[in-house]
Amino acid sequence: MEAIWEWGSALVLALQPDSGGLALFWRALSVLGDEVFFLLLMPLLFWCINPILSIRVGMVLLLNTTVNTAFKLALAGPRPFWYSAEVRALTAEGSFGIPSGHAQNTVGVWGALATGIARPWAWAGVGVLAILVGLSRMALGVHFPSDVLLGWLLGGLTLAAFMAWSEPIWQRVKDQALNVKLALTFLASLVLVAVPTLVLALLGERDLPAIWLENAAMALPNDPIHPWSLETAVTVGGTWFGFTAGALLLWTQGGLDVRGPWWQRGLRFVLGIIVVIVLWAGLGALFPRDETFVAGMLRYVRYTLIGFWIAFGAPLLFRRLGLVA
């Protein structure tokens, strides 16, 4: 791997911007593959455009994140600014580098959107966006080319698996009683937490080279790295359960009709996202942020509430306020 990292560091250094304006450009591009961006996109789609497409996008995002977290913990590869003191970290990242989650999400999640649009230009756009986001992650000093390539591959495989298996699985469970479906989706959420946890349990927390830790601390003195954290796995599990359970309950009440004038759709999004922010920031401030079992349970609850609000709580509020057809 040393040869790959050496070559990758040279390419990263060549891509790193000299001006603040170019760095801002790369950061803006990088946002288009960010999990937080997609967690804003999911409610926008659900409340204002197409709930079914939102469910597809949300599931692919969460499955992608589970796969990415498991591979990161298994491969335990450095980020360029850990490996070389010459590389500048132009954004803060504390997890392992390989595979790139942004590259993986760009292919998987934007690809899921493209399947809903079903036009050649949409797939062409995904390809261009994937290249640009991949370049942005290298230019920002947080990924080697090998990280990006594996991210693209895993994103494509995850999307392909979802498109091949999601409908057959749904056909097997759709006629089950609601309580059975809720139990199954709860078990699925536990599997999403268990996969990265099992990888870490089997392989253990390996000792990292001292130079990686020194370079990371020098590059980001106020943002210590935390590569062995399972916070992301718990976040995914809670979001999955809340979002899918809410969607199942909503569909027992006829689903959500998102038609309406632009101002009505905009008002739905503003009202709904305010509550998302309150749940995310408010409970985040109240609940502990360490790696204990209790903190993990509370994190699961927090993200369950966020997912449930998106798929069920907000649509009920919109009905009460007369903001849906």
From TrEMBL:
UniProt entry keywords in alphabetical sequence: Membrane, Transmembrane, Transmembrane helix
**Pfam family example for this protein?**
PAP2
What residues does the Phosphatidic acid phosphatase type 2/haloperoxidase domain cover? 52-163
SUPFAM superfamilies annotated for this entry?
Acid phosphatase/Vanadium-dependent haloperoxidase
Q: Which InterPro entries match?
A: PAP2/HPO, PAP2/HPO_sf
Q: Which residues cross the membrane?
A: 36-63, 121-144, 150-170, 182-203, 233-254, 266-288, 300-318
- According to UniProt, the name of this protein is Phosphatidic acid phosphatase type 2/haloperoxidase domain-containing protein
What lineage does UniProt assign to this protein's organism? Bacteria, Bacillati, Chloroflexota, Chloroflexia, Chloroflexales
